[in-house]
Amino acid sequence: MPGAGSRRRGWVIAGAAVVLGGMLGFHRLVPNWLGRIGSLVESFLPWGGVLVVVLLVLALVRRSAVALVALLLPVGVWVDTFGGLLLPGEEHGGRELVVVQHNASDENRDPAGTARALIGSGADLVALEELVGPQVAVYEKSLAADYPHHVVRGTVGLWSKHPLSGERIVDIKPPGIEEGWSRGVRAVVHSPDGDLAAYVAHLPSVRLGLGGLASQRRDESATLLGRAIADESVETVILLGDLNGTVEDRGLRPLTSQLSFAESGFAFSFPAAFPVARIDQVMARSATVGRIRTLPATGSDHLPVVARVALE
């Protein structure tokens, strides 16, 4: 029979399981006014599954029935929230586009090699961010044969196998950022299956410090981008970008409230050396983003992500 100490440890594990289940299921109730802790929790929410496994091992070692029962809560919540991402995803077929999103990094020493890697994906659309100086010319030359249509505005660009029109800057510059900051572009893609508006965006970076998560500018930029997409006259929209946030992060609510995102695949894209979160996103309106996955590392600190988008 387990002793009193062992029973107490079992109850501690059970308590931790209940707290974890509550955090996973009710993360929206975590306040964001103090250091944006709510957004911080949501950024790493999928990793709650690792904590579930740790608690499960402890419960088995302690042979605690009460802990095992309590673990049903976080297991159920995690599976309900993220279990679908483990499935292979539906085969839509027919009217679909393959798209690649990649923050190519302004410190990338091999833009030509990066371009070759992206061409190998067979994508119809390639979105790039952090395009600076002579790198732009390298990408234009390297991608030209496979992607004869492209637009670059500021530090973001879109390459397409299909004709483009209506290219314009999308102003997502939040207050307080100096002039010359341009990280949004929009173009209409004339695909064989119909027209769609493609947006490429790079939202401001967030920083984690003693004061919590510094994401105010990212959130303000997301709001501006959300307004632009809401006003878009073309019904079908695809958003590709480094949004510096996960789809669970409430800071991206102006986008996730009106756009769908990947049905399956975690595709953690950052940092490339040890990816812990997907901050490179593919979202859509009047279209379905199927399985999303990462491509092998390039010369960037982000991994490219590729997804199939089924047009409605």
Structure description:
- The structure is a single chain.
- The chain is 32% helix and 25% strand.
- The radius of gyration is 21 Å and the shape is elongated.
- The protein has helices at residues 4-25, 37-43, 48-62, 65-70, 72-82, 111-119, 133-143, 216-230, 253-256, and strands at residues 96-103, 125-129, 149-153, 156-160, 164-169, 184-191, 194-202, 207-209, 212-214, 237-242, 280-285, 287-294, 305-311.
- The model has no long low-confidence stretch (mean pLDDT 91).
- With 312 residues, the protein is α+β, with helices and mostly antiparallel strands.
- It starts with a helix and ends with a strand.
- Strand 3 (149-153) and strand 4 form a beta hairpin.
- The longest helix has 22 residues, at 4-25.
- It is built from nine helices and 13 strands.
- The chain has a six-stranded mixed beta sheet with strand order 3-4-2-1-13-12, covered by helices on one side.
